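> run fold Vacuolar protein-sorting-associated protein 25
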Amino acid sequence: MYTPPPHSSFHESPTRMATSSITTPFQFPPTYSFPPFFTPQPNTSTRLSQLQKWSSLIQSYCRHHRIYRLSLIEAVESPLFHNAALRKRLGLSEARAVLEWMAKAEEEGGGGRRAEWIDGGSKTVVWVWWKRPEEWAGILADWVEATGQKNTVLTVYELIEGEGTASQEWHGMELEAMFKSLNVLVKRGKAQVFGSEGQEGVKFF
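> ok
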């Protein structure tokens, strides 16, 4: 399995948007305008529904803005968790509880591993997987097949920023997120990643 170098921008801006411009504003769901949405519900079934709706909102928001890595400290001050019109917000501890639920597998009573903590026990920076690495790997494999890229060598930079992938949903993806997805293909014997830092290449099989 290929281990990528540490991401140079990690300490600069843990919440990053892709470089492509967002032309349409994000449309929040109706529940976002419902004050109880921002208060943990005591009833078990109601709480589960609340967590599912928050998970859906977080994934949709991050997908729209092409956010892969979310800093909770920054995010709780953003419209994602702070509805200024209602003067309601999800605090840091409650936002962390939602992401903690998202990070668990469904069989563990969680949200299907749609999040993954980056900073260990601190739990302030998290991957938001609106598509999990396994799903991205499948999309990459389908693209390789459809475009006849098997047994050819591409740079990882080409995959992320190249003109040939400009129409693909992963275009502009964070480097570490791309490596996580490529490593799924490496484990399946469908890709090989090689090269020095900043010059990584990938060959698909």
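Residues 30 and 201 are 44 Å apart (CA to CA).
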